[in-house]
Amino acid sequence: MKIEGNCHCGAIAYEAIVDPQKASLCHCADCQTLSGAPFRASVPAASADFHILRGQPKIYIKTATSGARRAQAFCADCGTPIYATAAENSTQYNVRLGAVAQRAQIPALRQSWCSSALAWAQNITGLPESP
Ligand SMILES: [Zn+2]
Ligand SMILES: [Zn+2]
């Protein structure tokens, strides 16, 4: 599936071919912190299928307790998360769904790191609503 996206300020724009069947949520504590949200939604693209059209993301290298090094790409001006990929020998970009234009058509189909999921964020049905 072809997607396009851009950061909030517009400095960075990209396009990619993603596999919507692999869209997922991550509840890990790092994703909560790095996204500023209760959980993060992403969809993978092969590295060859992800293309920056405008701008240059800033890269933050996150080292996991396992030693795995992940490059977290975001807009240095507005902070929008763009993607994450292996810091070395990248084969896949995990594109952050929040900045993808087609995000409403790419539902997450699985979730991971559920042991650190925030219980209050798992069912928001019934919260008072405003349009
Ligand atoms: Zn931006
Ligand atoms: Zn995570």
What would your notes on this structure say?
The protein has one helix at 29-35, and strands spanning 2-6, 13-18, 24-26, 40-54, 58-63, 69-74, 81-86, 92-96, 110-112. It has a single domain, classed as Metal Binding Protein, Guanine Nucleotide Exchange Factor, Chain A (Beta Complex), CATH 2.170.150.70. It has 131 residues and is mainly beta. The chain is globular. A hairpin with a 6-residue loop joins strand 6 (69-74) and strand 7 (81-86). It is 5% helix and 42% strand. Strands 1, 2, 3, 4, 5, 6, 7, 8 and 9 form a nine-stranded mixed β-sheet that branches. The longest helix has 7 residues, at 29-35. The chain is built from one helix and nine strands; from the N terminus they run E-E-E-H-E-E-E-E-E-E. One zinc ion binds at residues 7-9, 11-12, 75, 77-78, 80. The site of one zinc ion (ZN) has 6 residues, from helix 1.
Strand count: 9
Any idea of the CATH class?
Answer: Mainly Beta
Which CATH-level-2 architecture?
A: Beta Complex
CATH topology: Metal Binding Protein, Guanine Nucleotide Exchange Factor, Chain A
